[in-house]
Queue: 2 jobs
Job 1
Amino acid sequence: EVRLVESGGGLVQPGGSLRLSCAASGFTFSSVSMNWIRQAPGKGLEWVSYITPSSSTYYAESVKGRFTISRDNAKNSLNLQMNSLEAEDTAVYYCAKEGPSADSDHWGQGTLVTVSS
Amino acid sequence: QSALTQPASVSGSPGQSITISCTGTSSDIGGYNYVSWYQQHPGKAPKLMIYEVSNRPSGVSNRFSGSKSGNTASLTISGLQAEDEADYYCSSYTSSSTRYVFGAGTEVTVL
């Protein structure tokens, strides 16, 4: 069974940093691309970042230069380093496994990031 | 502002069929057959319902179907049931550097 468990969310001040992690199990993590997708309170889904098995990366314009996605295939772990956080980054952040057809076929339960003074 | 346009809400009575539209451009929906649909119940993570425009993952009811014409994709729910009441999001691969775009979501209400 595929399992994705996010951690690392919390309250941070504007301008601060936070590192999210996602522990993956139930599939061959090293062979699969992964996504971070977020959802602001009461709002829709927003794709944030994508990483291939070989660590090629893509970012939404809204986070480019501030967020860094990475993975540790030996530890089956996905990470998102978030710097220079803004109030607009407040959201539930989901880790999602990429399916075979540019979709997200399994999602974690999400971790809440709140940026506020 | 979302890159894909969906109606804010759609409603129907139990047993009826409803269709949710999702309009993009030739750089996303119109250019690729990588359209997916997600169902999200309140407080829950999204669930993949349709991938590659019209394919259902294992375990998804055949009451859910997808299609595409030009720059517009559609999700149809037939035989509407109370458990179908949720938010639905479309997504597409895009040729832009951002890779993926979502719609703003459609709230489905079962009357």
Note: The interface with chain B takes residues 35, 44-47, 50, 58-61, 94, 99, 101-110 of chain A (CB under 8 Å).
Job 2
Amino acid sequence: KQEVTQIPAALSVPEGENLVLNCSFTDSAIYNLQWFRQDPGKGLTSLLLIQSSQREQTSGRLNASLDKSSGRSTLYIAASQPGDSATYLCAVRSSNDYKLSFGAGTTVTVRA
Amino acid sequence: DTEVTQTPKHLVMGMTNKKSLKCEQHMGHRAMYWYKQKAKKPPELMFVYSYEKLSINESVPSRFSPECPNSSLLNLHLHALQPEDSALYLCASSFRTSRNTGELFFGEGSRLTVL
């Protein structure tokens, strides 16, 4: 069974600092990995999708890397802003399982 | 336009009520999903529809009854719920389902409170 872990559970940084969010998974046989953002009481917003054949994806200030062999993905957010405050979840779709396995998320607070 | 629309945004119901949650997408996606999310927990899969047919039921109690009237609509009918069913119910869609799936898009959710 795929298990997805996100550490730390919470993170507080001053505005302008770069954010590094970690996601680890136990089964390297994955189809893709997706990063989401969730604001309190709201739905999930897709940030980046990385296919298993890719090593990274970029969108604006966001960059996500994938290392399947070590079972890790990292989301980098450059020059953080207070508007980046949210919970960030990673989700892994195993290549032999229809399910999307979610991590518990990292709650980020960017202080002005 | 990547948008999944859910109604209502908030719903309060008694344990004897019957209500429905609705979800709509116009992205041409053929896979639609219901997830349940409790506070400070990740979403849990409930149902998956693929080409308007139920393909996955994650052993969800029968008091939750999904329906997919057409490729753009997904409903979740609620009956005789328990207070512990109070949660954020999220609808999602993707271009394909099963292993060969693409990006998953979520709606804003319906916040359900069962009294």
Note: The radius of gyration of chain B is 13 Å.
